Amino acid sequence: MFKKSLPLIVVLTMIVALVPSGFALANNADVTLTSTLRQGEPITLYSTSSSNLSSLDPQIATDTVSIQAIENLFLGLTDADPLVPGDIRAEIATAWEYDAETLTWTFTLRNDIPWVHWDPVNDEATVLRNLTAFDFEYGIKRACDPRLGSLYGAVAANVISGCDTLNTMDVNEVTDEDYASVNVAALDDTTFAITLRDEFGFFLSMTPMWMLRAVPQEVIAEYGDDWVEVGNIVTNGPFVVDEFVQGVRRVYMRNPFFPEDLLGPGNVERIVTTVVQDIGTSFALYQDNEIESANIPSAELQAVLADEAYEGQISQVADLAVFFFAFAFDKAPTDDAYVRRAFSAAVDRNAFVQEQRQGRGVPMIHMTPPGIFGAPPINQVGVGYDPDYAREQLAMSAYPDCANMPNINVVTYQGAGAWAEFVAASLERELGCSADLFSIEQQEFSVLLASTDPANPPEDRPHMWTLGWGPDYPDAHNYIFDAGYFACESENSTHKPCTEVDDLIAAAASESDPDIRKDLYNEIEERLFGPEGEMPLMPLYMRIDYVLNKPWYTGPFQTDGLFGGAHWDWRTIDQEAQMAAKGG
């Protein structure tokens, strides 16, 4: 049941009138959004999402939908600049300094960030108290606690001293006293220190990440896992949670107590996101002026690009996500480096992007994309499409001309089965490998992750599988180490053994000189994807997509949200034009 809107009462500060807003959901093929627009209607961004939100807990969230919401509900120590990708700007921390001798970063924090509780029944906002450095200490230690089961706790453990000790403990042996092993500390209410495990030159770029954010300990103590439920949750960002009906819709309101000097230049006061899994239905809603933004269905892409009616509404957006086929190192024939090199060099990335993505991508022959610190010049490192080289490599393998090659199980996520068919056809054309060698299976994403779990025995894991990696922070370490395909010390889903490349990865991570780090990452990528590379995976493309935005909806769409989530307070709606388009 949807919550009926009541007059908005902001305790002690302001009173704003809201009008009711209702949505009628029909069958899967027909969704109608109806909004009553009257004087006093909050400036509202209407959107759709094809995915459910899994968690609003900063230490638990892993999916992009959840992280997008968390970006607007909880502030970080620092923030990814919405206008300059890769730049880090102040947020709760106003200043920071690094002591190379102690490996300690010390942050000076604002003292005027309130923890705000939003009552969705009475539309009432109240301040619990102001945030302190102790909230960061609790939040980060909580991320390291293995009892929480935080996936990104392992990312924190890779860099923060003592977090690795706590994070790897047996969950049945952890006590609250073990939190003391994590070397993060509130020195006073506005001073916070983090001690690293090594000289990690990339650490500052990690500080906007969601699992490193402050959370209110007393609220979690009161409600337990339910602390993030609507009506319980206490947040400190520019928006609050007004409604959350899983599989239906999510509504957020502007936080009335948020410091004005931290607000972005946008004017959006309310976000209404309806869950619509079919991209065609979302596109139809966009055409009917029911939502402000939409992706373009593949079947409609060429027609939309040629239609003058959409002039000025189409943007190309690169999210820096790189997609690939990974290889299993622990089973034949992909345990053979010659086979992996041959397979990779037999695939024409340019043709793949045109045929499978309708041009929506940049062909990739190495892992780290442009725009990320430490990335090699685009496609200047690696072999790429080279049929002659591919045939030479296969001839040196245990399976010349694919003779006696065992069957190869290829798993893709749903909708990407054609990718595997493209690869199989390429290998048949360039290497003479019969298409009958390849068994292709599409799996739901969570099933794919489970089937490729490195803990599974080799016979239960595929030879090849699709995945993609989008950046958590703007540094090559995130692609080379955190992604889990190249470093034997990380959770290595390919079962790649330790080699000299791992020494280079460790050296790049602990190097403080940025120029030396760049050179090291170039060498790492060459050793992975060059003519004699280990080839743990077959890079395919960096995703680029076309997005439609209504003329009355503006913001830094091409630069905001590449790391973490987009900033809703940087979005602007011309409400008069919006209302006119919706029928006044």
Give me a quick take on this structure.
The protein has 584 residues and is α+β, with helices and mostly antiparallel strands.
Report the average pLDDT across residues.
90
Number of domains: 2
The structural class is alpha+beta
Q: Superfamily at the CATH H level of the largest domain?
A: Periplasmic binding protein-like II
Sheet with most strands? 7 strands, mixed
Helix content: 25-40%
Strand segment count = 26
CATH architecture of the largest domain: 3-Layer(aba) Sandwich
Beta-strand share of residues: 15-25%
The CA-CA distance between the termini, in Å, is 27 Å
Q: What radius of gyration results from the CA coordinates?
A: 25 Å
Mind explaining what this structure looks like?
It is a single chain. 45% of the residues are buried. It is globular and about 70 Å long. The strands form seven sheets. Strands 18, 19, 20, 21, 22, 23 and 24 form a seven-stranded mixed β-sheet that branches. Strand 15 and strand 16 form a beta hairpin. It has two domains: 8-292 and 550-581, D-Maltodextrin-Binding Protein, domain 2, CATH 3.40.190.10; 318-543, Dipeptide-binding Protein, Domain 3 (Dipeptide-binding Protein, domain 3). The model is unreliable at 1-39 (pLDDT under 50). The chain has 584 residues and is of the alpha+beta class. The chain starts with 7 loop residues before the first strand and ends with a helix. Helix 9 (337-345) packs antiparallel against helix 11 and helix 15 runs antiparallel to helix 16 (514-529). The longest helix has 16 residues, at 514-529.
